[in-house]
Amino acid sequence: MATQSSTDPNKDKVIHEYDGIQECDNALPNWWLGILYGTIAFGAIYWLSAESFKTTPSPRAEYHAEMEKIAAEEAAKMKAIGSVSDESLLAMAKDTKALDDGKGVFASTCAPCHAANGGGSIGPNLTDANWLHGGAPMKIYGTIKDGFTAKGMPAWGPALGEERVRAVAAYVVSLKNTNVAGGKAPQGDPEQ
Amino acid sequence: MTAQAAAYRGRTEVRRITYDDQISRWFVFASVGWGIVAMLLGVTAALQLAFFKANFLQYFAFGRLRPLHTNAAIFAFVGNMMFAGVYYSTQRLVKARISSTLGKIHFWAWQAIIVAAAVSLPLGFTQGKEYAELEWPIDIAIAVVWVVFAINFFWTLWRRAEKQLYVAIWFYIATILTVAVLHIVNSLAIPVAAAKSYSIYGGAQDALVQWWYGHNAVAFFLTTPILGIMYYFVPKAAERPVYSYRLSIIHFWALVFMYIWAGPHHLLNTALPDWVQTLGMIFSVSLIAPSWGGMLNGLFTLRGAWDKVRKDPVLKFFVAGITFYGMSTFEGPMLSIKSVSALAHYTDWIIGHVHAGALGWNGLMAAGMFYWMIPRLFGTELYSKRAAEWHFWIGTIGILVYVVSMWVSGIQQGLMWRAFDGKGALAYPNFVETLNAIKPMYWARFAGGTMYLVGMCLMAWNLVKTALSGKAVDGEAEVVVEIEETEEKVPARKLIFGQPVVVSFIVLVVLGAIAFTSAIGAGAFMILAFCIVFIAVFLSWGRGQADKPGWHALLEGRALLFTAFTLIAVLIGGAAEIIPVLVLPNSGAGGNAEGANAAVHPYRPLELEGRDVYLKEGCYNCHSQMIRPFRHESVRYGDVSTLADSKFDHPFQWGSKRTGPDLARLGGKYPNLWHYQHMLDPRTVSPGSNMPNYPHLASKSVDFSLTETKVRAMRTVGVPYTPQQVQSAATDAKAQAQSIAEDLAASGIKVPADSELVALISYLQRLGKNVPPPVPPAKGTTVSLNAPVQN
């Protein structure tokens, strides 16, 4: 498999013929051999690293490490943005910037079940005075974040993140008692 | 016949033989006809993704049409093309005529299978495994026809007048053997009705077997036979010698040995044990050179003939086809790297990749071969060179439009799925946002596919015109036939224990020992294997220069032995990966065993029925059930999937593409009412969705008389149902259906409790929920399905 120079007597020499098809036996290009040996060497090293010595973490190990890091960051962030309370949500419900954020999330995430105006379809009407899981701001916040999956309300906390959950909770608080036209019949109990 | 002819020192006589070319004429036109059908289906499927209203009939909704498209493209278009090329070239390369009777049986039975597929897939008869959807009676027919093909091929080899086997024949041998093994092993199933069966494998085991099959269907149905065809038709068309015999040897053996290991690259970052994933990745990466060996031998054969490429459309198709092969076989290994797969898997990037191969490599090679063959098979000239040139340019530009739009779409959607905003939440929490972002690319793909189809139609017209302008002629040749074997043969023992075999065996044993040692031992065994190879190469250096034929040249004269070695080479990889996973299902076999030993409850009978509806509608074509260990996936879909989650899934439904979201943990996420509305019209709850409507599920009834048989079949394949659960299957299914119907009725929705829709909802609500089944009711209790539903 030596490199063939242009003076190689075997270059382009026909050694076989089948049904008129001639066959030469030219040398293998070195760059091709380089790829062949290189990728096999890569395979051997990668195997040793990933499976034998475990110096390359598995996808699952990487995942667990990332989730731990994120959990720590989340905890730090929660500290920074302060805790959530009925008061903070009511304050956000009066803040146009927060309401705009909440309205955007509502349109993409909540509207399919609660209708674009909050009047309800699959899910209950959010613009009346009745609530299935409580109408206090923190109750609404909890329902959005953790869901009532047995009743069909998904837990949106993981997908939306803390800030969006608060914004959309504040937006829902702002819908309360607006009684939009054509809304679904009341479900649940009137808010105490 | 220079050096070889001299070797035949036995008593010989010259005979005149006529080749059976009728078979090739038939297969060419069958391939062209089915190719147009396959591509028309593909264009329709592309339209459906861009424009959901194109899902006009339940029989041709995307979930049923897509398997029809893939099966037609692979088995009808490429299958018929391969048979045409194999029969034409094999007869000429080995100087023997095939059996025309077996050829006719092969041809008509294969067309009958295609028709059976074209009828059964739209009707929803499916095994739910990609590219292996056809139900068990058709599977048996495929196996039988394949055996007919094999007998015809090997019997022709047996009677060959040319003793040495040319490289094209090696590739045909590998194709015939491996496709048979793959098809039979992957299709093993327990029948429950005339057109319904369950895979004997479940969960991760089924995933591994399926992608061992699926990947190697690409390797041994779409690649190796076409390489063989390349080795015959490219030098014929270019009238230039093949570049390198030794490159043929090395890339052939490397390709058939390594390809088999690569299947798990379809399952990277899933719940499949890590070690199998790693094997799949490293062998895939190592496949670049063996694949490119074929490309080099094809392209370098054109050295000194490049001026002909400008004038000859046949060579244009071959050059472009081989170039697409080189591109796809570089892209494939790159996509098989775990971190690249993390982005690309489940996206359109993969769709682009396979179409670069299917349209670029298979389609263009087929066209080149047809344009070369048909004038010769009809003793005339190609009717219109200009039309062939047009076909080339329309087709090639069509492929580029297709592939580039899928790259853009796949990478864009992959990046959108994983994007987090500054607030630590998903930037695009709504899946449908990521779908709507790539809609323009879906229209571009539709345009590219349409261009390719137009080119195909142009070719069909051109080939028919050519055929009509001539008349069928069969090739003839004078061959030297040995009537008495007086040549001294090297004993088989010398070949079986030849140096390459002994060295390969020792190296494989040494490398296999890695599985049983520590990390240090693994490193030591690898170094030892390297040293053995090095010493062997050193010892044989220069020995091949001697006058007598080398080991491989001798092997080429022994068809049976060659076939046996090929079979061993292809069996090793599959066996090394599949057997440990089948034998040690719960250990994770040295890899990730997360959740492997959790207590798993089987589906309730109605959920099983609902699962069959899911299979029948082909939901797996757009929805995965495998949440990978990435933050964006667990945040979007729920906890990362484990081996246990799908343990009792016969067949597994991990999926390979997310046109819609993952469903592994869908259960309980939405109320029954949401599912009801979503199935009737997905856009009512998910505006912008491109999912078809499924109103027919509400009116179609589940046949509960089969439920018990189905549950019993599941028990046979190892799902731990108790005999009581088997007996009360139908009763329990009806009771569960009733409770869902009542829940829907409470929201004012009237839907028959025995409808497929209710069964499907029960299944969807169960996904990701490992709930124990209720205690079976006492014998004799029945639940009336006709009880009035209360509103």
Offer a few descriptive terms.
heterodimer; A: 192 residues; mainly alpha; Cytochrome Bc1 Complex, Chain D, domain 2; two-stranded antiparallel ribbon; 7 helices; B: 791 residues; Cytochrome C Oxidase, Chain A; 3 domains; globular; disordered N terminus; disordered C terminus
Please give a quick description of this structure.
The complex is a heterodimer of chains A (192) and B (791). With 192 residues, chain A is mainly alpha-helical.
Output mean pLDDT of chain B. 92
Assign the CATH topology of the largest domain in chain B: Cytochrome C Oxidase, Chain A
Share in β-strands of chain A: 5-15%
Tally of contiguous helical segments of chain A: 7
Strand order of the largest sheet of chain B: 1-4
Reported by name, the CATH topology of the largest domain in chain A is Cytochrome Bc1 Complex, Chain D, domain 2
Helix content of chain A: 40-55%
**Unreliable stretches of chain A, pLDDT < 50, 5 or more residues?**
1-5
